[in-house]
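COURSE: Structural Biology Practicum
ASSIGNMENT: Worksheet 4, Part C
STUDENT ID: 0417
INSTRUCTIONS: Below are two proteins. For each, the amino acid sequence is given first, followed by its structure token string. Answer the questions at the end about the second protein only.

PROTEIN I
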Amino acid sequence: MRILAAMSGGVDSAVAAARAVEAGHDVVGVHLALSRAGGTLRTGSRGCCTIEDAMDARRAADLLGIPFYVWDFSERFREDVIADFVSEYQAGRTPNPCMRCNEKIKFAALLERALELGFDAVCTGHYATLVHAPEGLELHRASDEAKDQSYVLGVLTAEQLAHTYFPLGTTPSKAVVRAEAAARGLTVAQKPDSHDICFIPDGDTRGWLAEKVGTQTGDIVDRSGAVVGSHEGAHAFTVGQRRGLSLGMPAPDGKPRFVLEVRPVTNTVVVGPKDALATAEIAGVRRSWAGRAPASDAFRCHVQIRAHAEPVPAHAVIGSDGVVVRPDVPFEGVAPGQTAVLYEGTRVIGQFTIDRTVSAAPLPV
């Protein structure tokens, strides 16, 4: 196959490209420039797609003996990922920019260009597996559960999966990948994994949002509506948050309070006890299926609501109002804007963006 290897500058994508070459494919490496700040530097494990990452990717491609290019996707990234992130927070939702990047950039914009240029597939260093089942191509969890990234790939469609290549999916551990990189002479063998939001490398999401949308004083209220504090912008809060509330009035029982709801229209943040975070139902309209659609409109599955959350057994129903999921055991701290990924065993069924939640804890009388 003719394969375009997306090379981030990290060890996973470098080894994935190396395995594609070793498998006999015609491989070309590409690094995506997602920021117009050309002199951006990397700080330890924070951030990605920096000038140093581009140089690391080029060195890996040179060692592998494959052509290498840098493609400027910064404008598309700004519109589809960064602008979406800001607007979602302004609407009181909690977005996942990695999901949006996979959906809009790596497996949409990049894949579209790859196909236009005659490539058969895009290769990445994601930890997930593709299975050719009798019913069609399926996306499954990786062998290494600790590194499994099938959750952030849940947005991929059947057509996109048909043109993807995940060489690391059956690798038993990240340690094996690092050892292989060292044996191949790749200088990124011990490079730290990137984490946090790539376009907020210092990790200060609240400060970054304040610069983008400004500040506006509003009330923090309890579940009865009583004002218990104030804030400088509802966009800085998310459901389940405990730190940074600065409440002027302690709870009657002396226990800590958590963000239960963000109301952007009134610039209000609602707080309450931890047990009020229990969620009995989630639902959403915007959905996609990773391969074949469910055979029935009502089915059992496991649902994962965060990249590293435990999957929860649940009952799902597809109707005119979208996908409705009722977990056997309540979720904790679910925020609108998060992505719910549905599984059947290790297979990814599909995903939806959470629009609505129903609390499992009744309001106090």
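PROTEIN II
(use this one for the questions)
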Amino acid sequence: MAAMETVEGGDEEEEEEAPPPPHAAVLEVWQSGLARLVRDPLLCDLPAQVTPEEISSQIALEYGQAMTVRVRTADASEAPMPVVVVQNATVLELKKALQRFVQLRQERAGGVPHISWRYIWRTYCLSFGGEKLTDDGKKLREYGIRNRDEVSFVKRLRK
């Protein structure tokens, strides 16, 4: 019986010696690793709080597997937003990438106001070269959109 107590006591000591790292410490290690990664010339345009998704997109851009589509707001008051999508992306994939871009930008600015994307897509559509991108399943390439082209929001007309 004394041997069992020793074994149990030994297990407790081992657990105390190597506690799992707290979430904050792991997050700090992760962020510092990403910060080092972002210093690479290929990834230097990315923000300090970069996401793995943004790193993958930047690498895909470098290898020609993705393209940047610049999206201008309807009032054209600010610079176009550089949204990265795969080369054979559809209009729907561009919309989702744009939503993610805006969400990340808002989180980094310190606030997370709610945007009703349902309202936005009901009220506006994207346009390229005077043509509205109304078919979500159609590929951007079919509309003639290439790397670094600019699309803009235009008001939908009621039927």
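ANSWER KEY EXCERPT:
Q1: The helical segments are 2-17, 23-38, 52-62, 91-108, 117-123.
Q2: The chain has five helices and five strands.
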